[in-house]
Specification:
heterodimer, A: alpha+beta, B: alpha+beta, 5 helices, 4 strands
Chain lengths: ~250, ~190
């Protein structure tokens, strides 16, 4: 009878231990982990809400930038306009277009862009003209709003031509297009900062490019033919080899 | 002291000790239990509060889904645009620079930019030393008329073929390796 107090104390301690301490000790790490996870999600969503708030404030800028970027990398190939644009640039540079073939796909050079989902229109362009006109053409393509990336540039000096218009050049032009159809994903962050200096610099730079939106589609100088990419690349090499033997003429 | 009294005293002492010990144990257990209860309740409340915040933020974000879609579209296209512009080689600068380094006596007949950052140049020169001058101009970092942003663009220039059989004219074929990184930032 005298040990009733210690026995009761032990009993109560045991009950407390089994009903409160043990389950709490087991659950506490899970609760802590859950809280950490929720805090993480909450801070991510707060950041995203902040970004969205900013984007809503600058909605017109976002729309304008998207429209601008859409002109550089359109959603559709729009091949006739692209070919017309190349033909237009070449003619404006004083060159005469002798070949204009195209293909759609990923050329070996643009393989790295395959992951971005961009498709490439590869154009094999053959022109004749002078060296200065060729340089002008390259300068114009480099600042063309619809992106035109030059590769495999080759030229030869024709033996029979005079000093001007004596160059036969061929090059491969790659123009990307990309259909993006993003969906709103609440828990995924938006990795776009329109105030970032890198973003602003590139956007300001491309605003200075030449836009050919209002170009009236005219018949191209030569008829364009669709070909497989590999054939276009091979054609470019073959075109150079087939050019008449060169004469010692100044560039 | 009789044996029985010693036993009684020991029993009383043991009882006292065990009572004190179990009461102290109970107090500790109560304290620990209270701590766990308070902590778990606090954690649960914090979790509930965070869930409330998350639900509010999600609703706020969902209401701006149109802006989010535009931003994602812009983000994706911008990433591709940036990659293309950063990797772009400005061949117009290369052609202008190569021309500025070429001695006037040399005439280039064939020019090809190959895939492996090499240029093949074929041409004719009135004399062999002029070709050497051309090579020196290409590799010279301080050649004045050249584009200063393209300093060091030509890594090597190798004469692959020289034909001196024609009198007064030397034909040559040259392979020039260029640094594509320099062409990316040409101005």
């Amino acid at each position: 009878m005298n040990f009733i107090v210690p026995l009761v104390c032990i009993g109560i301690s045991g009950v407390l231990g089994f009903t409160i301490i043990y389950p709490s000790a087991v659950n506490m790490p899970q609760l802590q982990a859950s809280l950490n996870e929720k805090t993480k999600v909450s801070s991510l969503l707060k950041a995203k809400a902040g970004v969205l708030e900013k984007l809503v404030d600058y909605k017109s800028v976002v729309d304008e930038d998207l429209s601008l970027v859409d002109k550089l990398i359109p959603s559709e190939g729009n091949i006739p306009y692209l070919l017309n644009q190349i033909d237009h640039i070449a003619r404006n540079s004083g060159l005469t277009v002798s070949r204009l073939n195209y293909g759609v796909g990923n050329s070996p050079k643009e393989g790295k862009d395959a992951g971005s989902g961009a498709e490439i229109i590869t154009v094999n362009l053959g022109v004749t003209g002078s060296y200065t006109q060729l340089v002008t053409f390259l300068q114009e393509t480099e600042k063309s709003a619809r992106l035109l990336d030059i590769s495999n540039l080759r030229f030869t000096i024709n033996e029979t031509s005079g000093a001007e218009g004596n160059i036969s050049a061929s090059c491969i032009l790659n123009s990307p297009f990309m259909l993006v159809n993003s969906k709103a994903s609440t828990d995924d962050p938006i990795n776009l900062n329109i105030a970032d200096s890198g973003f602003v610099t590139i956007i300001n730079r491309v605003k200075g490019f030449s836009f050919y939106d209002n170009l009236v589609v005219e018949p191209n100088t030569v008829e364009a033919t669709e070909k497989p990419i590999d054939e276009l690349l091979n054609d470019n090499e073959a075109a150079e080899q087939a050019t008449p033997s060169a004469a010692p003429t100044g560039l | 002291m009789p044996e029985q009294e010693v036993q009684a005293q020991t029993k009383t002492k043991l009882l006292k000790l065990s009572t004190v010990f179990t009461i102290v144990l109970l107090i500790i257990v109560c304290g620990v239990s209270a701590y766990f209860m308070v902590t778990t309740t606090k954690l649960k409340n914090q979790i509930e509060a965070e869930e409330g915040v998350i639900a509010g933020l999600r609703s706020q974000i969902n209401n701006k889904s149109a802006v989010e879609i535009n931003a994602r579209n812009l983000g994706k296209k911008f990433a591709t645009l940036k990659s293309i512009l950063n990797d772009r080689l400005y061949y117009s600068y290369l052609l202008t620079d190569i021309e500025s380094r070429k001695p006037t006596e040399i005439s280039v007949n064939q020019f090809s930019i190959l895939n492996d950052n090499k240029i093949s140049i074929s041409g004719k020169s009135p004399a062999y030393p002029v070709i050497t001058t051309y090579v020196n101009h290409l590799l010279g970092n301080n050649y004045e008329p050249a584009n200063p942003t393209l300093k060091g663009v030509y890594k090597s220039a190798t004469l692959n073929q020289v034909d001196m059989t024609n009198q007064g004219s030397v034909s040559f074929t040259m392979s020039v390796e260029f640094d594509p990184e320099k062409l990316k930032y040409a101005k």
